[in-house]
């Protein structure tokens, strides 16, 4: 009876290269998100914006309630058609 040999191992330098590249990819992705969060926080904390009055919270004209409700109704009709 012959013993099965394990598959040959890759050199450690190749494994290190893989982990190094993965580490760079994760680092760049997280720094992009943290930079985006920092920019948002900076926009709201700048002193020149603190004395400006806040804009009223009304939806933009292209999202007016009439058009939105008709859009929702048409989507509902479409979904009913799909299920029937």
Structure characterization notes:
- The chain is mainly alpha-helical.
- 68% of the residues lie in helices and 0% in strands.
- It has helices at 12-45, 47-50, 65-83.
- The longest helix has 34 residues, at 12-45.
- The mean pLDDT is 66.
Number of E strands: 0
Order of helices and strands: HHH
Task: Report on the biggest sheet.
Answer: none
Mean pLDDT: 66
Secondary-structure-derived class: mainly alpha
Envelope shape: elongated
Low-pLDDT runs of 5+ residues are: none
The multimeric state of the shown protein is single chain
Count of separate DSSP helical elements:
3
Helix content class: 55-70%
Task: Estimate what percentage of residues fall within beta strands.
Answer: under 5%
**Radius of gyration in whole Å, from Cα?**
28 Å
Please give the alpha-carbon distance between the first and last residues: 64 Å
List the helices and strands and how they pair.
Blueprint: H1 12-45, H2 47-50, H3 65-83
Q: Brief overview, please?
A:
With 84 residues, this protein is mostly helical. It has three helices and no strands.
Task: Looking at this protein, list some descriptive labels.
84 residues, mainly alpha, 3 helices, 68% helix, elongated
